[in-house]
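Look at one such:
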Amino acid sequence: TEVTEKLEEVVMIWTKQIRQVLVESEQIRREADDVGPSAELEHWKSRMSSFNSLLDEIKSSRVKKIISILQAARSKTLKQWKELDGRVTIAANEAKDNVRYLYTLDNFFGPLANASPVTVMEHIPSLMNTVCMIYCTSPYYNTSERMTSLFLKITNQMINTCKTYLCEG
């Protein structure tokens, strides 16, 4: 029982740390007003990396051994652990999925940032088709919050491109 108590303390510390990571990941992002759509992809790539690392740690043999010992001891801490494990898995899957979908927009980011306004306009129909495809098929990215954020960043990039064109022209 002494060993079980020590292991439960370790799991409770991990639980607290994982909860903190989840809370921070769900907080509203602070971004500059003129940030472009590539920032959205970078955000999700970073989040994917964080949650994949966390999942790797959770699935490590060291953690699995501790969890199996606590299962054998019928520890009450495992209910919280399993719930958090599930939430981390969902967050990792969401980030991976969002990166995959946002990469379909990646080939538009260069023209949006570096082209003339006329060239930008030529890319708008296919860009909107791709955004529509993301909205219709992504299980995670099809919310009004996600789409609003993406459209805001696309619009910011178009405005910045036009400003640059006007100032240099």
Remarks:
- The chain has seven helices and no strands.
